[in-house]
Design goal:
By secondary structure, the chain is an alpha/beta fold. The strands form six sheets. It has a six-stranded parallel beta sheet. A four-stranded parallel beta sheet has the order 11-8-12-13, sandwiched between helices. It has a two-stranded antiparallel sheet with strand order 1-2. β5, α8 and β6 form a beta-alpha-beta unit. The longest helix is centred in the first third of the chain and has 17 residues.
């Protein structure tokens, strides 16, 4: 008997799911074959029946296994790996369809996809929030030839997707969890560019100020949330800035709030901390944020406290999706080519349809244009 032990029930559920995944990977459970009963699995693994059920529910949500009413539970069938033409694209997005067209960078990615698409290509948008978890069978029903997974940051789901055999490109997220194509921002290079700019202006004490956020999507057909991982963009921008500061022997100061807050409240907290350190030796002379939206909120909060950029403190953002200005002053930032990101995604998907299947992740980075704005300046000796 294989016994699974863990400190928490959640960990045991995950291990049940991993045990079944491993048996599928070793082909001890064949594609389309029925699974042992839940009670049999409970006896073999030495866990409670309810624990097995929760583990199987997790695999059903990921599309690794499927349930047929009156027949039982089966290993999901793998889709064909034969070459195909890209005629019908599935767009899988974690948020609502309305959200997809609200933000500028998402709109630019969609523009790039549209401009780079082959003639007579159709697209069906799957919203995880509105439609529930998208599975292999649904892609088959819509005759999807390839899929773009935009902002899908769940590694378990990406692993399951890769097993289905549908050509897929992950956009605006970077991972090594599944053998897929990933198109993401070149965040570490952008962070290095920002730090080099501040160093050239004489800054030696820089604080990286950011929200630490976890994304959570409520699925229509699943009572449990699909918990999305920390954004790879946020993580890479923070780590890239810290590494660039360390390389230059500059002081490293990270101000990261552990809980998701409204951006304006977060900016007020940072501004108050800066004012508290007004006469302290460790007061930073420059603040770096991960995005232009965070930088704009921070500039507003600082101004309300009588602090202005760059006279009192320099402010810049690692990445931007628009030409941002505050009180007529352009923001110092790296403007990313999100239209190019969309074009790259559709080019990769077209190529992957003609030659499906990858044995490892392929990561593709898009570039940026550095904008030397008016929110950064030379360090004030006083």
């Amino acid at each position: 008997m294989v016994r699974l032990t863990a400190k928490t029930g959640t960990t045991t559920v995950r291990r049940v799911a991993d045990h079944v995944r491993a048996r599928i990977a070793r082909e001890q459970l064949k594609r389309g074959a029925p699974l042992p009963s839940y009670r049999e699995l409970a006896n073999v693994l030495g866990v409670a029946y309810l624990t097995v059920k929760r583990g199987m529910d997790k695999l059903v949500a990921e599309g690794v296994i499927c349930q047929e009413h009156g027949r039982g539970t089966f290993v999901a069938k793998e889709l064909s790996l034969a070459p195909r033409e890209l005629g019908h694209v599935g767009m899988i997005f974690p948020g609502s369809r309305e959200l997809l067209f609200r933000y500028q960078y998402l709109g630019e990615i969609m523009q790039g996809i549209t401009r780079g698409s082959p003639p007579r290509m159709d697209m069906h948008i799957f919203s995880l929030r509105e439609d529930g978890m998208v599975r292999a069978a649904q892609l088959g029903e819509w005759a999807v030839n390839g899929a773009i997974l935009l902002g899908v940051e769940n590694d378990d789901y990406l692993r399951a997707f890769a097993q289905w055999g549908t050509p897929g490109v992950v956009v605006d997220y970077c991972s090594t969890a599944a053998p897929l194509d990933y198109v993401a921002c070149d965040n570490r290079v952008a962070a290095r560019q920002v730090v080099a700019h501040l160093a050239a202006l004489g800054h030696r004490r820089v604080a990286y100020a950011a929200l630490h956020s976890q994304r959570q999507v409520h699925l229509r057909d699943n009572p449990q949330d699909l918990l999305l991982r920390d954004s790879s963009d946020e993580r890479e921008r923070r780590d890239g800035t810290v590494c660039a500061l360390q390389e230059r022997n500059m002081a490293v100061d990270v101000w990261s709030l552990p809980e998701k807050q409204h951006e304006d409240n977060w900016a007020v907290t940072v501004a108050d901390e800066l004012r508290r350190r007004a006469r302290a030796a460790d007061r930073p002379t420059a603040l770096v944020t991960d995005s232009n939206h965070a930088a704009l909120a921070l500039l507003k909060a600082l101004a309300r406290r009588g602090l202005h950029a760059p006279e009192n403190i320099s402010v810049c953002a690692v990445a931007s999706d628009s030409n941002t200005a505050f009180e007529g002053r352009p923001l110092t930032t790296c403007r990313f080519d999100f239209i190019g990101m969309g074009r790259k995604a559709i080019d990769l998907l077209t190529a992957r349809c003609r030659k499906p299947g990858l044995d490892k992740p392929h990561i593709h980075r898009i570039g940026f244009k550095f904008v030397e704005g008016q929110t950064t300046g030379r360090i004030n000796p006083s």
